[in-house]
Automatic annotation (TrEMBL):
Residues 37-56 bind DNA. The keyword Lipid metabolism does not apply. Keywords: DNA-binding. GO terms for molecular function: DNA-binding transcription factor activity; transcription cis-regulatory region binding. The keyword DNA-binding applies. Transmembrane segments: none annotated. Residues 14-74 form the HTH tetR-type domain. This is AcrR family transcriptional regulator.
């Protein structure tokens, strides 16, 4: 096998991936996240259930693939996009913009994130979380060099656990604006000048 075969997805595998994701998105839109099963996705995609499991390992893997494009867009925005979310603004403005954008992003895919975290409890602390944590720790370090930036980054990310976020939005009836205002209160000590 040549190196190209290892680095590029086979055409039939890419086609199956697209079919599986399209079927999963359709089922999700029609019946909600709770109704999404690997067997039903395979049947809707016209592939064997083994193909779905080989491609995505488990339901959490499938859910994260559905989440992936929005996640890529969000990461591009805070890493390379325009200020204040992206580079070019001060650390206080970037911190606020990041937390507000993360609240919106979490709200938009709350059901998927909730299911992914329920299916794989460690999933919350994988690649995206690490990137968010490093980004927040960097901003906190610029604002307050003496602070424990690693701890504070975890503390600021805690409200984005899907189960808590969904509970606040649905059971407690908190608006997205109220959650953003609360995040502003949490960061007030960090962002206060002087």
């Amino acid at each position: 096998m040549n190196a190209t075969a290892h680095t590029h997805e086979r055409a039939d595998a890419a086609r199956n991936r697209r079919r599986i994701l399209a079927a999963a998105a359709r089922l999700l839109a029609e019946r909600g996240a709770a109704a999404l099963s690997m067997d039903e996705v395979a049947q809707a995609a016209g592939v064997g259930v083994g193909t779905v499991y080989r491609r995505f390992t488990d339901r959490a893997g499938l859910l994260y693939a559905l989440i992936d494009q929005r996640e890529r867009d969000f990461q591009a925005a805070f890493l390379h996009g325009p200020p204040p979310l992206g580079p070019g603004a001060g650390p206080a403005e970037r911190l606020r913009a990041f937390l507000h954008a993360l609240a919106e992003r979490t709200d938009q895919q709350a059901d998927l994130l909730l299911m992914a975290e329920a299916d794989s409890p460690a999933a919350r602390f994988e690649a995206s979380y690490d990137l968010y944590h490093r980004h927040l720790a960097m901003l906190i370090g610029r604002l307050r060099p003496e602070a424990d930036a690693a701890y504070l980054a975890d503390a600021l990310l805690a409200p984005f656990a899907a189960n808590l976020f969904v509970h606040q939005r649905r059971a407690r009836g908190m608006t997205l604006q109220r959650i953003r205002a609360g995040l502003d209160e949490l960061t007030a000590g960090l962002t206060r000048s002087g």
